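Side project, low priority. Logging it here so it doesn't get lost.
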Amino acid sequence: MKARWGIGVVAAAALVSAAVLLASCGSGAPGPKPEAQATSSAKQAAPQVTAQSAPAASQPRQHHEAAGGHEEEGAHMKHMAEVKEWLKKELGEDYEKPVPDVTAAQLAEGKKVFEQNCAPCHGMTGKGDGPAAAALPTKPADFTDPEHSAYYSDAGRIHIIEKGSPGTPMVGWEQILSEEQIRSVYGYVKSLRKGSAEGGEHEHGDHDHN
């Protein structure tokens, strides 16, 4: 009887030990492999590329385009200065000679001459946007731009209409228009400048200022 009781106690103890061992194994969940931990850390540390950071790549291009625009404007102003010097040499003291204002009849005649001969390049309103402007290497002058249109003197402008402008598509009209027509058309061109003085800002593109 005692032997059977001892066997029962040993068996019970063995069952308890087995239960404890199983419980301890079950509670210890397998941890992540070292490789998985390294991959997870790398993903967290990797920089995130967003739409906000993307424009940084285009900054050199934007800078180049801006620099190109400044270079074109600089070349444009240099050419205008060269034309101005040419006009002063051509006209001498007459470059600054005042030009009388046109009469109402001359203004009306100048408008007709402008629409027939100048509008194809300079546009009906004188903004340099005529139908033939797109085919020209440089944009025709915007006569509504008060700042640039006043760069040359009135006598200088008339001389350009007569002789043309060197280095630009602007040709001379003295063999086609009479002296009176040239004076009238310039009077009309000048009125476009005055008429736009209250119109606000103008865009200064790559144009000839003829």
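Brief comment: The chain is about 60% helix and 0% strand.
Revisit when time allows.
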